[in-house]
């Protein structure tokens, strides 16, 4: 009697484990479909090996975390509580919760650039609340519909695999698929180790794309980069950066602006938000954005605005009183009201194509055809950067995706309004907001390196201390240093060094 019961118990457990493997295969397909959104959230690879790595990592990593979820949940339940109907129902509910959570994480990553975490909860709640309040009916319908579809899939997969278990056991698909996924897993880690050691950013930049991803790294990531020192990389990610004794290498020969288009641009810089608000009340045709990221140090912010470069180059260019490279061909810039930049006298105020003015509430623009940018300098001295308000006469500028920096204003002015895009690309690190393709950027202020990606801003001081903060809310994000993204950003910062 006892032996018979034991055999019956073992038979049910064996059947459930066999069913669980096929149920997991079905969920691997669903997870692969959902995780496709991660691959489109960032800029794609630029090399063939980058695409190969993206493909094998997507296949192996998503399959691995799905299988681990099965091992940690359905597998022990099948051994402890081997009742098919109950187990299949609980498995469908657990799998629905997991797939729904993955869908939410994919949505957050696509919009904010980081995964679900307790430290980023305020910004995640803000994102979801904004989506819900902007279109409550549609959002509720979509969210509820996605959960219902996932649950329906789980029930269908659960019942189908159970009722056709005998026929499924005859297929050799599972054996071949498992072997293929293991090969992909090994390939992905092997490729990453090679890329990490040889500084192949096209591969290592994908480190943080998929959730719960912990790729293998080399002991020294940046041995060939003289700006970063990661001697204690495994222990503390000790990143050191300095702007002392840098050499600025001007682009040469500078591309001529063959299709220069006359235009007038007024960039009004206010010393207080009160004056800016008063000016905005008098000009109701201006458009507004709260995504303006600037250095708290006023000289650094103004340098970035005038030169289209981070303040990393400020010391060498201002000490030698070099004019911005982009305006040497056409004396089209005037800067008035700022003592630190009195050496820039490109043109008379009224005749300059671009006029940068220390403004107040009574400042007027030149005419109705003038392109206007207006913002106030930051007043928070307890931080390195600040996100504030920017007004513009150009609606498209204020609707640009992601953060806008002072260097982007001059880049847009020269590249778009004056029709000199080649000059902008060759001489600035600012981005023409009309052709902005991704929500990433770099800056430098008060000895601190600044890099942002969507809502996440990374700050690294000269001692190697770093932190991640939310651009919208300002709170700290508990997330490890994104080394591949940092390497790419550092290289961009040092574009004009030699």
From TrEMBL:
Keyword Transmembrane helix among record annotations: yes
Signal sequence bounds: none
Origin superkingdom: Bacteria
Domain Inner membrane protein YejM N-terminal: 7-250
Keywords: Membrane, Transmembrane, Transmembrane helix
InterPro entries: YejM_N
Keyword Transmembrane assigned: yes
Pfam families membership: DUF3413 (PF11893)
Segments passing through the bilayer: 21-41, 61-83, 90-110, 138-161, 173-195
Name of the protein described by the UniProt record: Sulfatase
């Amino acid at each position: 009697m006892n032996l018979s019961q034991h055999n019956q118990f073992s038979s049910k457990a064996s059947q459930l484990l066999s069913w669980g493997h096929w149920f997991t295969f079905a969920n691997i397909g669903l997870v692969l479909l959902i995780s496709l959104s991660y691959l489109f959230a960032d800029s794609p690879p630029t090399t063939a090996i980058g695409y190969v790595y993206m493909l094998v990592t997507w296949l192996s990593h998503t399959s691995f975390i799905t299988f681990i979820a099965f091992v940690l949940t359905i597998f022990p339940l099948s051994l402890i509580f081997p009742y098919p109907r109950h187990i299949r129902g609980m498995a469908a509910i657990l799998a629905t919760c997991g797939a729904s959570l993955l869908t939410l994480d994919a949505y957050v990553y696509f919009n904010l650039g980081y995964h679900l975490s307790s430290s980023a909860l305020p910004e995640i709640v803000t994102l979801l609340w904004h989506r819900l309040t902007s279109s409550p009916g549609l959002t509720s319908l979509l969210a509820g519909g996605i959960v219902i579809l996932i649950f329906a899939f789980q029930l269908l997969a659960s019942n189908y695999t159970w009722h056709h278990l005998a026929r499924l056991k005859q297929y050799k698909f599972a054996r071949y698929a498992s072997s293929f996924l293991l090969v992909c897993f090994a390939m992905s880690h092997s490729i990453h180790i090679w890329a990490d050691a040889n500084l192949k950013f096209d591969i290592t930049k994908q480190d943080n794309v998929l959730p719960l991803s912990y790729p293998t790294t080399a002991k020294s990531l940046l041995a060939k980069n003289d700006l970063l020192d990661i001697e204690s990389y495994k222990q503390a990610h000790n990143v050191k950066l300095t702007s002392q004794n840098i050499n600025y290498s001007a682009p040469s020969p500078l591309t001529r602006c063959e299709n220069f288009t006359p235009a007038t641009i007024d960039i009004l810089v206010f010393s207080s938000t009160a004056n800016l608000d008063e000016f905005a009340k008098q000009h109701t045709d201006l458009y507004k954005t709260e995504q303006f990221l600037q250095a708290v140090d006023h000289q650094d912010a103004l340098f970035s605005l005038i030169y289209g470069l981070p303040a990393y180059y400020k010391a060498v260019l201002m000490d030698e009183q070099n004019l911005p490279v982009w305006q040497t061909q056409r004396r089209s810039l005037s800067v008035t009201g700022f003592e630190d930049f009195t050496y820039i006298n490109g043109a008379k105020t009224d005749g300059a194509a671009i006029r940068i003015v220390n403004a107040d509430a009574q400042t007027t623009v030149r005419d109705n055809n003038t392109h206007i940018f207006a913002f106030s300098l930051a007043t928070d001295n307890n931080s390195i950067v600040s996100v504030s308000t920017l007004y513009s006469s150009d609606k498209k500028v204020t609707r640009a995706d992601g953060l806008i920096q002072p260097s982007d204003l001059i880049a847009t002015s020269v590249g778009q309004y004056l029709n000199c895009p080649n000059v902008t690309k060759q001489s600035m690190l600012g981005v023409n907001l009309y052709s902005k393709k991704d929500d990433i950027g770099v800056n430098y202020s008060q000895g601190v390196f600044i890099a942002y990606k969507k809502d996440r801003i990374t700050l690294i001081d000269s001692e190697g201390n770093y932190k991640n903060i939310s651009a919208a809310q300002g709170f700290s994000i508990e997330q490890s240093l994104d080394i591949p993204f940092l390497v790419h950003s550092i290289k961009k910062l040092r574009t004009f060094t030699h």
